[in-house]
Amino acid sequence: MQQLNRKTKTAKILALVFSFLVIPLLLLLLAVYPAGAETPKHYTELTFPPVPEIKLPNYSRFQLKNGMVVYLIEDHELPLVSGTALIRTGDRLEPGDKVGLAGTTGQVLRSGGTLKRSADQLNQFLEQRAASVETGIGETSGSASFNALSEDLEPVFDVFAEILRQPAFPQDKLDLSKTQQRGNIARRNDNPGGITSREFAKLVYGDTSPYARIPEYATLDNISRQDLVTFYQQYFSPNNMILGIVGDFDSKALRSLIEARLGDWQAASSGKSALPEVTQAKTGGVFLVNQPQLTQSNIQIGHLGGLVKSPDYPALTVMNEVLNGFGGRLFNEIRSRQGLAYSVYAAWQPQFDYPGLFVAGGQTRSDATVPFIKSVFTELEKIRTAPITSTELAFAKDSVLNSFIFNFQDPSQYLGRLLRYEYYGYPLDFIFRYRKAVETTTIADVQRVAKTYLQPEKMVTLVVGNEAQINPPLSSLNPRVKVTTIDVTIPPARQS
Q1: Residue 361: its pLDDT value, please?
Q2: What DSSP string describes 288-333?
Q3: Are residues 312 and 257 in the same domain?
Q4: Residues 27 and 129 in one domain
Q5: CA 406, 411, 414, 416 torsion: positive or negative?
Q6: Which of 39, 76, 170, 353 has the most beta carbons within 10 angstroms of its beta carbon?
Q7: What is the pTM of this model?
Q8: Is the pLDDT assigned to residue 2 strictly greater than 90?
């Protein structure tokens, strides 16, 4: 009966969400697009309203005696609470002979249960309360999150703290995780787009770089239960975490709960881990992954990028908008005018604490591969050597600024940014500085950053496609440059 009541409450909450969010949205769409509306305007005729001022909601920040930083944002619109803990860890910190260790640790942290409760007991407990707890470790961070009805906040938070502090890491769940990952390895060449992204990262960062390496059968075989325990003990400590919670709660009461469940957790003595160094592995060159079954080529062109904290990041964002999107140069020239591809893009992709990538590319017919690549390079050279127009500048800035508002639609998005900036050591007003810098970006700024940061001589070109159908051949791009074939054969599993 209790479970039924909870499901009924959950259904009521979903009904409220529908009535407050979905129905108004439908009414708005009917108002904006009435029957018999005029013919849609060309993108150059579009106008955008001024971007509204954005104000951070009230929040509290405090630090436990053990070093854990906590952010709280009250939001009483719905009887829901969600929280996330960011852990200073990541795939990039795992040993090279045990690639996959971090992700496995993050998975089994939740799937393996705790010293007090088995995984099945945890699942039943959470299901009865329409709640969830999830954990994982990605490239640059680990995370643990929970969602619960506000009336169940205390018991669900108890479980959340229990998973963080007392994971069991049972051998059978480790074995299951390895089996799942072996399946992923076996299927990793089924998706041409996945091959392209994976091999491009290896070309730029190097195939042994923490930012490009991938699990293999051999590295999974090297991972033991003790490795999970050791990795967990090395990085999971309160002074290595940032906790953020948003929702329907009283901040004073929740602070007391946090201090009661996490305040006695002993801080670790180790400091921050040194980050791996990044240098570009391949400089220039044309590379091919031959896939005879394909009728299209997947193409990526680019080189090492930069950091979000670069003072030129706002101008690079505007430059990217000039190149990219439905009104961008690549779309207009390569797709619309030349008809060489349905999908074409360019992306300056900075990272918070290590150099990201600049990538241009798309998908095209096998026989259009070489013209596509030449056209991309032509457009990149144009934006480097000649000023953009005032119309392009205005449209790009308006596009960036009008998408800006979608980063602040609800308190959980605010909280996400607060956690992210705290984690990477960025000022809390970074996003507002960025907005102001976009607003003041000039034509000269765009040309300067394009000329400075886009370096065609350093760009590697990768094609995943059917070599026999690529005509003219890739060698015609530059007779002086040898086309290097990449072998993506999966190393076999170790014989037991």
Answers
A1: 96
A2: EEE-TT-SEEEEEEEEE--BTTSTTHHHHHHHHHHHSSTTSHHIII
A3: no
A4: no
A5: negative
A6: 170
A7: 0.86
A8: no
